[in-house]
TrEMBL record:
Protein name as annotated: Rrf2 family transcriptional regulator
InterPro entries: Tscrpt_reg_Rrf2, WH-like_DNA-bd_sf, WH_DNA-bd_sf
Classification via SUPFAM superfamilies: Winged helix' DNA-binding domain
Xref: Pfam families: Rrf2 (PF02082)
Protein's organism: Pseudoxanthomonas putridarboris
Length: 153
């Protein structure tokens, strides 16, 4: 099963937006994220509805960050994406009448609920400002040419 990397990708984009003074176009973001501009526009449109980003059309337009980094948590971003599953582990359901399979599924489902609750709680403790500070600290500790600072984007 393919993992869901939307949370990581959106966090990546939001942190880049926090580092630039002007707007970023959908094309710029798409090249940076190795995706299509339509995917960028669709994703950021949902964040615009929440007031987290702003957009302007035309020359000099693009996407700008509008949320408060100190008040926006990773859990907030996760929820903005529709709260996709944080963990990917699906119990077997090939023989639902099997008592062994039922016992295994009950145990796994309970563990998964507990693990997701713990992960969600931790995501709620980390803000975008925390990530931005970690990024700046990493850049100060590991300086390299400006062209490679943001891995080519």
């Amino acid at each position: 099963m393919k993992s869901d990397d939307r949370l990581s990708a959106v966090l990546h984009v939001l942190l880049h937006m926090a580092q630039v003074d002007g707007p970023m176009t959908s094309d710029q973001i798409a090249r940076m994220m190795h995706t299509h501009p339509v995917v960028v526009r669709r994703t950021l449109a949902g964040l615009r509805e929440l007031g987290w980003v702003q957009s302007a059309k035309g020359h000099g337009g693009g996407w700008k960050l509008a949320c408060d980094l100190d008040r926006t948590t990773l859990l907030d971003v996760h929820r903005a994406l529709g709260t996709p599953s944080l963990l990917k582990m699906n119990p077997l359901n090939e023989r639902p009448e099997c008592a062994v399979q039922q016992a295994v599924n009950v145990a796994l489902n309970g563990v998964m609920r507990d693990a997701e609750a713990l992960l969600a709680a931790r995501l709620g403790e980390v803000t975008l400002a925390d990530l931005a500070a970690d990024f700046r600290q990493h850049m100060a500790a590991h300086p390299f040419p400006a062209a490679k600072r943001t891995h080519g984007h």
